[in-house]
Write a structure and sequence with these properties.
The complex is a heterodimer of chains A (471) and B (198). In chain A, helix 2 links the parallel strand 3 and strand 4. With 471 residues, chain A is an alpha/beta fold. Chain A is built from 15 helices and 19 strands. Chain A is globular. Chain B folds into 2 domains: 6-167, Aconitase, domain 4, CATH 3.20.19.10; 170-198, no CATH class. Chain B is built from 8 helices and 7 strands. The longest helix of chain B has 14 residues, at 180-193. Classes of the chains: A alpha/beta (471), B alpha/beta (198). The interface between A and B is large, with 77 and 54 residues. The complex binds iron/sulfur cluster.
Chain lengths: 471, 198
Amino acid sequence: MPQTLYDKLWDSHVVHIEDDGTALLYIDRHLVHEVTSAQAYEGLRVAGRKPWRVDSVVATADHNTPTTNWDEGLGGVKDSFARLQIETLDSNMKEFGAKVYFPYLDKRQGIVHVIGPEQGATLPGMTVVCGDSHTSTHGAFACLAHGIGTSEVEHVLATQCLVTKKMKNMRVNVEGPLGRGVTAKDVVLAIIGKIGTAGGTGSAIEFAGSTIRSLSMEGRMTVCNMAIEAGARAGMIGVDDSTIEYLRGRRFAPQGREWDQAVVYWRTLKSDPDAKFDREVTLDARDIKPHVTWGTSPEMVVAVDDTVPDPDKEKDSLRREGMERALQYMGLHPRTPITNIRIDKVFIGSCTNSRIEDLRAAASVVKGKRVASNVKLAMVVPGSGMVKEQAEKEGLDRVFREAGFEWREPGCSMCLGMNPDRLDAGERCASTSNRNFEGRQGVGGRTHLVSPAMAAAAAIAGHFVDIRRWS
Amino acid sequence: MEKFTVVNGLVAPLDRANVDTDQIIPKQYLASIKRTGFAEGLFGDWRKKDPNFVLNQPRFKDATILLSRRNFGCGSSREHAPWALVDWGFRCVIAPSYADIFFTNSFNNGLLPVILTESEVDRLFHECNAFPGFRLVVDLEQQTVSTTNQSLSMHFDIDPFRKYCLVNGLDEIGLTLRHADKIRAFEARRKTQLPWYF
Ligand code: SF4
């Protein structure tokens, strides 16, 4: 019977399955970070258990690490709780071990979803889990990758398995060429705008179609990253030449004969031509414009040449109330043109958009220009130390600095503001991250999600602009 | 884990759809390495900002059942969300639908996420608003949600395995380790066939 990519990944990892469909799924790669692992290791210790397979673990500290003052060492972490979490991860790594650990201040440290692929620690055909919902990112490599809670982190550490049930198969096809200035971020925002934040609940989404195939691996990661914002625990894309070329020569990728064998296997990791999906959605890439979110949920999104929607036009009362609440929180009026919205801060970073390609795109927009005077802070936070090093080699740091951006150390930073990088109440931010929930970037902060190029242009103009008209 | 059989409790109505985990427990309350003590952060921003927020009202102070709308718990994987709910005293959430990760996390912490239809939930909101001190009886064994006088009773579905674990307060790791030999055999096979994953 023809199989979907998800079917194949699922079948190849089932260790045991009960009559009701509850399965033990074998986990190949376990990514660990400081905020959701402490309680799991504590649980192991209390129960007197050991990790099942230490070399499946790749760990780093990223969520609450500061992006400045690295020269002060751990003393530069002013928040005592953050320091405690970082130190706790250090001591857990010493006690329990890992395949590799990139601690705070290491030059290969970075956001867990950036460093996995970058190190070749994420490989096609793997199951990948992490106590973080954006684990879906790794699905860009034809992995079954999803976020888990801390109890599950402990469970995977202790048993190398996850107790789970098979999800439904959903496919989102995007076909056709992308217009100028339209990026992977806009594609995924358009998808979420279409299917909603619960559109993929209970499903694993495969992204397919000529547009998706034309994306670089960085772009594919951006798309899969936000599968969770469409409600799907996992997003994935089949293997092709781009996948394989990206991985060649990476630190933990196989070498020599093993590489050749792996590639043969990896090439099978795509949906069969006649595979059946429970649900399919198709978008025409030609219709996709640069997108900007206006509300407090990623599905509250419109094209940049559109206006803030009017709740009075919404028939569903629950939705209408949600829209009204969002507009009030965001301090916006219905029918305001998006390009009239002025911003206070700009954040270029996060596991959605902090890879080298993202920084190049943003740098090309700001080159030779200056950040607008009403913008209090514009910052670029590379996804990892390796991205930072590469960007500096290419001189991108200078381009940003000369334009008035701050160039920071890697980490999650203002994506969730667990470190000192935050919005103050009422501040409005053009952000390349993935969540615009109330208070996500700081209590009372207002987040607009956009692509790196759109964020960069907004920094220069002081308000949103249509990047398609940028010169 | 505490066993879950029957909960007879006061209901707190949180009349919003898409309540996300960033609201259930805002990030400024995540900085702990323990599993307890998160009650303080439960709906922290909303409680601070709005004196009329449901959990600020004395009449709902001792609620153990939270009633809400569709797509409850969307957003991040933070298990601090169910920890905070449990720490506050909630044993059960009732809503028409949940985000997947939150749903799983709840079971792993003895918090029962009950799914009722939109119209049933709607009905409960009406009752809850109409009658001060409105209580519900959630009977996991029978899979029912009913009013204390039984005038209203609704059935809910639940995965049998999850029910079994919850009713018996079982530790999932222990259950899985019963299959340790199978896991080892699977692993050995995988290592021979696809060695580059090890
Ligand atoms: S960058 Fe943001 S979304 Fe990504 S892992 Fe860090 S906190 Fe989560």
